[in-house]
Design goal:
This protein has 430 residues and is α+β, with helices and mostly antiparallel strands. It has 14 helices and 12 strands. Among the domains are: 83 residues, Phosphorylase Kinase, domain 1, CATH 3.30.200; 202 residues, Transferase(Phosphotransferase), domain 1. The chain is 31% helix and 13% strand. The strands form 4 sheets. A 5-stranded antiparallel β-sheet has the order 3-4-5-7-6, covered by helices on one side. Pfam families: Pkinase (PF00069). It is found in: Cytoplasm, Cytoskeleton, Cilium basal body.
């Protein structure tokens, strides 16, 4: 924080006066001391703003340092520009939900702090170095399939935790998936998240960014379940595999048309109740009888295509759940070395920080975690660290695992069977 900002903040605090309230019973007033005006929340003055890292619909985000703990955090200022009656409902929902959630794949809300005025509110959150959208735009080498599996596995674990607690995120997309420098993925931005019950109550259908919006939302369904998050997961998985958005619609009509081009035209046989959806009569869908996922991803294994098809089921009741997806055999088969010509960061594995999300390199390899941090890679490439010395610090088992990773994976057999159609009866996405 600049000296001018500190002086201004100190001046503003010194100008605070005790609050006076008239007594409900009896005569006179009582006072709330100036030191207690902001309650038990810490002041934002205890954080040093380092730089601005983003801005969303509901607030501005800064990278900051907690001057008490010396920890780097993300400081999200709640936007109140258009609010006449206090904090936005979206921010209240986000705070309420995140204070109750504790999972390694969900962004952590550490505390709520206040500025010099009651309407100046900040959320202190765990700091993540990147979001997937920025990585996809700026990385020189696309994610390998093994790394994609790692990312999606972590997203699914976070979603399973949410869905078991009857929480729908309702805005999953690559820009709302954060990644730490150790490869841990965290679901963020809960401004649109809602809890739901049984039977589901009507909600606004205009949720989820257009490219990731499920067909039932596009066709006006108001009773939402966790299936809308799972459709978004399918879009994210496909985007990471293809290195570009799968369904980049420019309008709701265009979005529906792209879905039909990819999966075929829905009907009552594959989606019971389809003809009675609120907005079906407003669209004339093209006649397209084929599922083109296999054509879109000709190199993807049979298990991978099967998982995508179950995530893209038209009927929300048949769509794969987070648990179904975690059990998919796609995550159990080895990465297809044929389609991974090189793995970024692998060459510096020996010199990287080994305190990753999983306890051993073997677990990391088979779970397909992303490579070590770019910083570690850069240091090794520029000779700042000696990989030989780093390897000496590893146990014999870890050294063996490093060599195993460097040698690559054996080629698994490729299945030749056709993938199920989008409307095929659901049994299991395995």
């Amino acid at each position: 924080m600049a000296d001018g900002d500190r002086a201004e903040a100190a001046s503003a605090e010194s100008e605070l006066e005790p609050l006076r309230f008239q007594r409900l019973w009896g005569e006179g007033y009582f006072e709330v001391p100036a030191s207690e005006r902001l309650g038990k929340c810490r002041s934002v003055k205890e954080f040093e703003k380092l730089n601005r890292i983003g801005e969303g619909t509901y607030g501005i985000v800064y990278r900051a340092r907690d001057t008490v703990t010396d920890e780097t955090v993300a400081l999200k200022k709640v936007r109140m520009d258009n609010e006449k009656e206090g904090m936005p409902v979206s921010s209240l929902r986000e705070i309420t939900l995140l204070l109750e959630l504790q999972h390694p794949n969900i962004v952590e809300l550490k505390e709520v702090v206040v500025g010099n005025h009651l309407e100046s509110i900040f959320l202190v959150m765990g700091y993540c170095e990147q979001d997937l959208a920025s990585l996809l735009e700026n990385m020189q080498t696309p994610f390998s399939e093994a790394q994609v599996k790692c990312i999606i596995l972590q997203v699914l674990k976070g979603l399973q935790y949410l869905h078991e607690r009857y929480i729908i995120h309702r805005d999953l997309k690559v820009s709302n998936l954060l990644m730490t420098d150790k490869g841990c993925v965290k679901i963020a931005d809960f401004g649109l998240a809602r809890t739901y019950g049984m039977p589901p109550q009507p909600m606004t259908p205009k949720v989820v960014t257009l490219w990731y919006r499920a067909p039932e939302l596009l066709l006006g369904v108001t009773t939402q379940t966790t299936s809308i998050d799972m459709w978004a997961v399918g879009c994210i998985l496909a985007e990471l595999l293809a290195h570009k958005p799968l369904l980049p619609g420019t309008s709701e009509i265009h979005q529906i048309d792209l879905i039909v081009q990819l999966l075929g035209t829905p009907n009552e046989n594959i989606w019971p109740g389809f003809s009675k959806l609120p907005l079906v009569s407003q669209y004339t869908l093209r006649k397209q009888p084929y599922n083109n996922l296999k054509h879109k991803f000709p190199w993807l294994s049979e298990a991978g295509l099967r998982l995508l098809n179950f995530l893209f089921m038209y009927d929300p009741k048949k769509r794969a759940t987070a648990k179904d997806s975690l059990d998919s055999s796609y995550f159990k088969e080895k990465p297809l070395r044929k389609y991974i010509p090189h793995q970024p960061g692998l060459q510096c594995l020996a010199s990287a920080d080994l305190s990753l999300c999983l306890p051993s390199l073997r677990a990391r390899a088979h779970a397909h975690l992303p490579p070590p941090s770019q910083q570690a890679c850069s240091q090794h490439q520029h000779g700042d660290r000696d990989p030989g010395k780093a390897c000496q610090a590893l146990s014999p088992v870890q050294k063996e695992e490093v060599q195993e990773l460097k040698q690559g994976w054996p080629l698994p057999g490729l299945g030749t069977g056709s993938c199920p159609a989008a409307g095929q009866a659901r049994s299991s996405p395995r």
